[in-house]
Amino acid sequence: MSRHVLVDRPNLQVVLGFDHMLRSFFGQVFKPADRRREGIAVAGWPTKSGLGTRRPPRLCAERDLDVRLLIEWAREQQPEGVWDDPDASAHLARLRSAVRFEWEEGENYPEMPVPEALRRPLP
Description:
This protein is of the alpha+beta class.
């Protein structure tokens, strides 16, 4: 199972990935500042926990639909203006490519650093 950090703020972490065993894409939201919920997703896609599956995408069209829905969900986890930052939008695009690669190749994509725009606290 791959896990790629999209957002890594002191009070919010958003992770996207691909579960090779289930052949399913997923997204999870964590609240690192809440020690009581450490390691427990507070929101997710395609389910509230991010665990489980819609159905394994077998065709490229199904893969493309699932990736589009996952990326739309991921964008909604941050205020709208965040994605105007070129580094933030480029990182999201790289993660989109990474999970597609994992579906196609069956292996994990290397980790990528989270840009400053997605690490600093929001005002």
